[in-house]
Amino acid sequence: MKLSKTFTSMLPALAASTAVLLSSPAFAETYGFSQIGSESGWRTSETNSIKAEAEARGIDLKFSDAQQRQENQIKAVRSFIAQGVDGILLAPVVETGWDQVLREAQRAEIPVVLIDRGVDADPSLYLTKVASDFTEEGALAASWLAAETNGVCDIVELQGTVGSSAAIDRKTGFDSVISNFPNMNIIRSQSGDFTRAGGKEVMESFLKAEGGGDNICALFAHNDDMALGAIQAIKEAQLQPAEDILVLSIDAVPDIFRAMADGEANATIELNPHLGGPAFDAIAAHEQGEEVDKWIKANGPLYLPDTAEEEYQARR
Ligand code: GZL
User: Fold this and answer.
1) Is the domain of 122 the same as that of 102?
2) How far apart are CA 113 and CA 132, in angstroms?
3) Contact 46 CB / ligand 1 (< 6 Å)
4) Residue bearing the bigger pLDDT, 42 or 21
5) Is the CB of 226 inside a 6 Å radius of any atom of ligand 1?
6) Ligand 1 midpoint to CA 143 (Å)
7) Average pLDDT over residues 290-301
């Protein structure tokens, strides 16, 4: 078909105006984001980062805070499906119970990206998982502690939310390393649900049960917020955190750097909160018909007190 000269000469302008039209709010991508809640400082920074990334990309992000309840997350995902969103971000509070709702999203041809935590459902039911390797984090934590204590340490453990992939895998990784050291033992282990209050309360019970803390060499907390609560309990027991009891945790939130700089914590491992970009890129790649890896990893390094003050100033 021969295009008229007039029409051909109009093509650049047409292309430009189409691009503008498609980038307007009426045509912007709309994603649903089912977030677990706001249980920790890290969770809040993750939420803020993902919202900021969506805004920067002109994405219409429908946000739902599940208040730590899986049933609220399932309701939110169903609502996103009913609204016909272009994609769904899901931070699954626990590993189990997602197959049905993921199948519903698949039937609606809406890609689901798991954010931060994993599920035990068939990987064909979600596009990808953007998350750290928690097993590696647990192993790195244990390796540091083994070196710090020459492989001799009775440890108390504050586990994360029961049933969450973060808690399950961090424990698996930590145990896999200390099992090589006959004189490294976890003498108490209980969930503090990733919160400061939970960490403080459980650490108080550990201290009472273990000679006021005399039997405890170190605390391994699955996140900084529980460690920060435990530090309060250790101080209230008239002990010096990081000295009498080593304090090791994960997330690298600003307040743990403050604690390290103040001599009250020994080490933290960074958990990247900036998961929105990789998630949005994965959906865009999928929409272009490109293959997407099933797991987009985002692991971080271990930090020690020697850089804590500058890290705190940079992050607060
Ligand atoms: C781990 C994440 C955990 C953080 C906690 O990726 O799910 O949940 O370590 C948060 O701070 O509550």
Assistant:
1) yes
2) 14
3) no
4) 42
5) no
6) 21
7) 95
Burial (CB < 10 A; 0-12, 13-18, 19+), residue 251, is: buried
Q: Is 144 in the pocket of ligand 1 (CB under 6 A)?
A: no
Query: What does DSSP say about strands 87-90 and 128-131: parallel, antiparallel, or unpaired?
Result: unpaired
Q: In CATH, what number is assigned to the domain containing residue 85?
A: 3.40.50.2300
Q: What is the pLDDT of residues 137-156, one digit of tens each?
A: 999 999 999 999 999 999 99
Q: Are residues 153 and 244 in the same domain?
A: yes
**Ligand 1 nearest-atom number relative to CA 166:** 1
Q: Can you give the pTM of this predicted structure?
A: 0.90
The two tokens of residue 40 are: 């920790």
Q: Same domain, yes or no, for 193 and 285?
A: no
pLDDT digits (tens, 9 = 90+) for 1-14: 565 666 667 767 76
> Which position has the token pair 């949005």?
280
Atom of ligand 1 nearest to the CA of 42: 11
**Ligand 1 pocket check for 167: Cβ under 6 Å:** no
Task: Indicate whether residue 117 lines ligand 1 (CB < 6 A).
Answer: yes
Rounded distance, CA 305 to CA 282, Å?
A: 36
> Looking at the chain, how many residues does it have?
316
Neighbours of 307 (CB within 10 A): 13
Structural domain containing residue 253 = 134-270
pLDDT band at 265 (very low <50, low <70, confident <90, very high): very high
Q: Is residue 90 over pLDDT 70?
A: yes
